[in-house]
Design a protein that fits this description.
- Helix content is about 60%, strand content about 0%.
- The chain has about 220 residues and is mainly α.
- The chain has a single domain (about 5-210), classed as Hypothetical protein af1432, CATH 1.10.3210.50.
- Helix 4 packs antiparallel against helix 5 (about 90-100), helix 6 (about 115-125) runs parallel beside helix 10 and helix 7 packs across helix 9.
- Nickel (II) ion binds next to helix 2.
Length: about 220
């Protein structure tokens, strides 16, 4: 199969697999991360095919929705890639991205590649800016969390375990994760794109508190 055919087959597989998923992690998220990954990869020196495949498969099975099973994503991706007879060296490189891309995994990340860095940046950028704000409140609504509670302070230096069982209001998620992402970008291009999205979130919060207090 040609690379383009493999990409198209992968798109079909991902759309089908994610059809019933929670809507913050659905095909639209994958589509945005795929596009952003290509935007970043064009400016960085990386293998575009690996970047595209990693981006398309990066959330194929989120542990949050599979009883915390962290192996199910890489396993699902591997089975698919072996079924379409992708060269095993390429399978390995793509699987490494699926295994290591998530924020949770980054607490103990050992593997490094330019392609992983790019997909990780794109995934993090999609948690920032206007889209990131929307996704956070969508997730909070899905979990029936409070929007904001001035009496519950955000945790600093949140640990991996705390992150997994996090149950605080959605506004706290900005301080626990979203506002930290800017300084965790890997690539130069990712850093540049993150600046604007970061500022937008800061402006949003400023406005939010004013409205919360009924000042404006
Ligand atoms: P990753 O896939 O990188 O591990 P997550 O699955 O934790 O990231 O997050 C996916 C999306 O859901 C992000 O937009 C994130 O901001 C949002 N989200 C995750 N946890 C929370 C939370 N506790 N409160 C609000 N939004 C959350
Ligand atoms: Ni993602």
């Amino acid at each position: 199969m040609k690379e383009q055919e493999i990409i198209e087959e992968t798109i079909e597989f991902v759309k089908k697999t994610l059809a019933d998923t929670e809507k913050g992690h659905d095909w639209d998220h994958i589509h945005r991360v795929w596009n952003l990954s290509k935007t970043i990869a064009k400016k960085e020196n990386a293998n575009m095919f690996i970047v595209e495949m990693g981006a398309l498969l990066h959330d194929i099975a989120d542990p949050k929705f599979h009883d915390g099973d962290e192996d199910i994503g890489p396993k699902t991706a591997k089975t698919f890639l072996e079924n379409i007879n992708l060269d095993c060296k390429l399978v390995d490189e793509v699987i490494k991205i699926v295994e290591n891309v998530s924020f949770r995994k980054s607490f103990e990340q050992k593997f490094k590649s330019k392609e992983l860095e790019i997909v990780q940046d794109a995934d993090r950028l999609d948690a920032m800016g206007a889209i990131g704000i929307t996704r956070a409140f969508h997730y909070g609504g899905y979990k029936n969390k409070k929007i904001y509670d001035p009496g519950i302070k955000p945790h600093n230096n949140i640990s991996r375990e705390e992150y997994k069982k996090e149950d605080s209001p959605t506004i706290n998620h900005f301080y626990e994760k979203l506002l930290l992402l800017k300084d965790r970008m890997n690539t130069k291009t990712g850093k540049e794109l993150a600046e604007k999205r970061h500022r937008f979130m800061e402006q949003f919060l400023e406005e939010f508190y004013k409205e919360w207090d009924g000042k404006e």
